[in-house]
Amino acid sequence: MKLQSLFAAAIVGAAAIATTSCSNEEHVEGQSATQAEVKFKTNITAMTRSVTTGSSLKQFKTTAFLKQDNTYNTFMNTVVSQANGEWVTADKYVWPYNGSLTFYSVAPSTLNTTMPAADDYERVAPTFTFTAASDAANQSDVLYAVNADHQFTGSLASSIVNVNFRHALSQVVFKAKCENTQWEVSISDVKVHNLKSSGVYTLPMQTTAPLTNNDDVRGSWDLADELHSYNTGLESPVKNISEDVVELTSSSSLPLLLLPQSTTAWDPKNDPKCAQKGSYFTIRCQLQQKTSDGNKIIIWPASGVNAYVDIAIPVAVNWEEGKKYTYTFNFKEGAGYIPPTQTEGGNDVVPGANVLHAVQFNVTVDDYQNTNSEIRL
After folding, report:
1. Superfamily the domain 3-167 falls into
2. Matching fold, domains 3-167 and 170-196+227-348
3. Mean pLDDT in residue range 181-188
C-alpha cells in the first residue's frame, strides 16, 4: 500500500518534528508531521450487553474534516478494517503538519450517510438513514462515533484516533415463566406490532468519549410514520415453561434491534381491532392444563396437539438508544387477548376478547318446600 498525505494541502509547508528532548515512546523519531500515519483504536460504549462488541466489530467507515489556516478539506467514507489486531485502511493516511481533524465514524460501513460540505462541517451535522429489518435474524446493530478537533502533537499517542462507538438502536429481548402451577406453556415465536421502522439519525458534533456521569453526548432520531411488525423467529419452540424463568431470546441470540421510540398501547376494550394503531406483543403459544391424574389437556388453542396460535399483550414502550429492554411474560392468572387481526374461527373469534376465562360459579339453593302428606293408620 502506498503512503499518502491525508490531504493534499497538508504536504505544503511540512516540517520536521523536534524530538531532541523526548523519548522514542513519546514522539515519532526522525519523521515529519506528514509522515506520521493516522491510526485507529476502537471501543464500544454500551450500558448493557449488545450484539456488536469491540471484539466482534470488523469494519466501519469514517469521514474526516480538516480545518487548517482557515481552509477546509475532507476525505469521505473511507473504510477502516480490522486485520491482524490492527485497524487499517486501503491506503495509509498521514497527519497534516498543523490544523485539527474531526472524524465521523459509523458501522456498518454500508449505512447511507450524508455529510456536509467541508466548509459547513462546524455548523451542519452529518446524518444517516436506516430501516430495521422485520426479522431478528436479518437485523444489524448500528454504531456511531465522533472525534472532534483531534490534533496531532508529534507524540505516538496523539497519532491514534480513539474511536468510541455508541449504539444508535434499542435492544429488546424476551423471557417467560408460568407461575400458574396448573399450567404449562410452550412458545414458538414473539412479535411486536405497530412500531416505526425507519428514520434519519443526526450525529452529535461533540466527541463520543466513554460514558461518565457527566458525559452523555448523543444524536437524535427523526422517525418516519409508517408502522411495521417485527418477529424474533425462534428456531424451535421453547416448551414446558413453568415457574422458572427461561430465555426466549438473548443479546447473542435473536434479540430485536429496533429504533428508539415511544408508543401508546393497544386498547383491546375500546379499540378491539386496533384502528388507533396502538402497540402490542403477540406470543405464538400453546397452553396445557395439568390434571389430577398426571395428564395434560390443551386449553389453547382449541385443537391440535402441535398447534400454536397467537395471543396478544398490549404494551406501551419508551425506548432510548443504547439501552437494552427485557420483557418477561408471566402466565399467572390469564393469557392475554385475541389479537386484533385474528380472524380464524369465524364468528366465534372476537378481537380484543380474553383468550381464556376462568370458570366461575353462581350458586343458588332452593328453599325447602313444604309438603303435606296424610298418613292413615
Report:
1. Fimbrillin-like (2.60.40.2620)
2. yes
3. 92
DSSP 204: P
For the chain, domain boundaries: 3-167, 170-196+227-348
Walk across the sheet containing 220-223 and list its strands: 112-114, 127-131, 198-202, 220-223
**Nearest residue to 102 via CA among 86, 84, 125, 85:** 125
Q: What is the pLDDT of residue 376?
A: 63
> Which distant-in-sequence residues (6+ apart) come within 8 Å of 39 by Cβ?
86, 87, 159, 160, 161
- Asked if 100 contacts 151 with a C-beta cutoff of 8 angstroms, the reply is yes
Domain covering 170-196+227-348 assigned CATH 2.60.40 in the classification: yes
Residue 373 has pLDDT above 70, yes or no: no
228 falls in which pLDDT band (50, 70, 90)? very high
Contacts of 169 (CB under 8 A, 6+ apart): 132, 141, 142, 257, 258, 259, 260, 321, 322
271, burial (CB in 10 Å: exposed 0-12, middle 13-18, buried 19+): middle
* Torsion region of 286: left, alpha or beta (phi above 0 gives left; psi -120 to 50 gives alpha): beta
